[in-house]
């Protein structure tokens, strides 16, 4: 089964992706993570980081090349959960081109919805662990020791793109590029299911589980 996970930055896609992958037994692929894991000293790594820090979109050709490399690994055969991809109609077309000859299709598009105000509130207060990638919220999920990760003791930092001045362009970009993608995928006949992401992570997970059950994807 292949799933596409949609949602604005800060909607909790990372947390929910883990939950969905466990439920469905599919592999999580986040294009944002693929980009963040590029060698920071390489020309490509520097170029991509500059785009991400500005809240822009990495060009389609670069995105497709990096995703294609990831999709060439064996762990994608039993299904993938694509997180943060596709973000443009061109990427959606490329995805279909990759899937069709392999007898695969996007079985489900899950869209986690939160308001713009909530995106702002979540992102500017978000801190990430440099070592294990765990995320904290300075007001709602603060670390026990300031500046240090509860899980591994790693250093917490704010992503360059989570500063107040960078968050608004990301929200604008979501409306401009990513949201139209939902209607595009709907027109292509894919099943789109909307999830309310405004609740606590556990409640959102439960609502995803119920929805997957109602739609017949799990028992
Ligand atoms: P995310 O972790 O999904 O919020 O992505 C972080 C950043 O990576 C985005 O703001 C974009 O700059 C870039 N990015 C991630 N996925 C894509 C994509 N499919 N196409 C273009 N840029 C992307």
- Helix amount: 40-55%
Please indicate the count of domains.
Answer: 1
Shape: globular
CATH superfamily, by name, is P-loop containing nucleotide triphosphate hydrolases
Mean pLDDT: 93
**Sheet with the most strands?**
5 strands, parallel
Distance from first to last alpha carbon? 14 Å
**What is the H-and-E element order?**
EHEHHHEHEHEEEHEH
Estimated share of beta-strand residues: 5-15%
CATH topology tier name = Rossmann fold
Question: How would you classify the helix and strand content by structural class?
Answer: alpha/beta
Hetero compounds: adenosine monophosphate
Write a compact overview of the structure shown.
It contains 8 helices and 8 strands. It has a 5-stranded parallel sheet, with helices on both faces. The protein has a 3-stranded antiparallel sheet with strand order 6-5-7. With 219 residues, the protein is α/β, with parallel strands linked by helices.
Layout of helices and strands, plus pairs?
Layout: E1 3-6, H1 13-24, E2 27-30, H2 31-36, H3 43-53, H4 60-71, E3 80-83, H5 89-99, E4 108-113, H6 116-124, E5 126-129, E6 135-137, E7 156-157, H7 164-187, E8 192-196, H8 201-214
Helix pairs in contact: 1-8, 6-7
Bound molecules: adenosine monophosphate.
The site of adenosine monophosphate (AMP) has 17 residues, from helix 2 and helix 3.
Summarize the structure in words.
The structure is a single chain. The chain has 219 residues and is α/β, with parallel strands linked by helices. The protein has helices at residues 13-24, 31-36, 43-53, 60-71, 89-99, 116-124, 164-187, 201-214; strands at residues 3-6, 27-30, 80-83, 108-113, 126-129, 135-137, 156-157, 192-196. The mean pLDDT is 93. The structure holds adenosine monophosphate (AMP). Adenosine monophosphate binds at residues 9, 30-32, 35, 51-52, 55-58, 63, 84-85, 87, 91, 170.
């Amino acid at each position: 089964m292949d799933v596409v996970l949609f949602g604005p930055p800060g909607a909790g896609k990372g947390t929910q992706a883990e939950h969905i992958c466990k439920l469905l037994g599919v592999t999580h692929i986040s294009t944002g993570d693929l980009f963040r894991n590029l060698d920071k000293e390489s020309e490509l790594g520097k170029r991509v980081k500059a785009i991400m820090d500005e809240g822009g979109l990495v060009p389609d050709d670069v995105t497709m090349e990096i995703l294609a490399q990831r999709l060439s690994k064996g762990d994608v055969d039993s299904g993938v959960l694509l997180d943060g991809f596709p973000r443009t109609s061109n990427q959606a077309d490329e995805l279909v081109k990759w899937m069709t000859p392999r007898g695969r299709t996007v079985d489900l598009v899950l869209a986690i919805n939160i308001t713009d105000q909530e995106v702002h509130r979540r992102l500017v207060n978000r801190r990430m662990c440099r070592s294990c990638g765990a995320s904290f919220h300075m007001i709602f999920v603060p670390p026990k020791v300031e500046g240090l990760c509860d899980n591994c003791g790693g250093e917490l930092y704010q992503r360059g793109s989570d500063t107040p001045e960078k968050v608004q362009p990301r929200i604008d970009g979501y409306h401009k590029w990513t949201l139209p993608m939902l209607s595009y995928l709907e027109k292509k006949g894919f099943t789109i299911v909307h999830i309310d992401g405004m609740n606590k992570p556990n409640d959102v997970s439960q609502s995803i589980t119920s929805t997957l059950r109602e739609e017949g994807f799990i028992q």
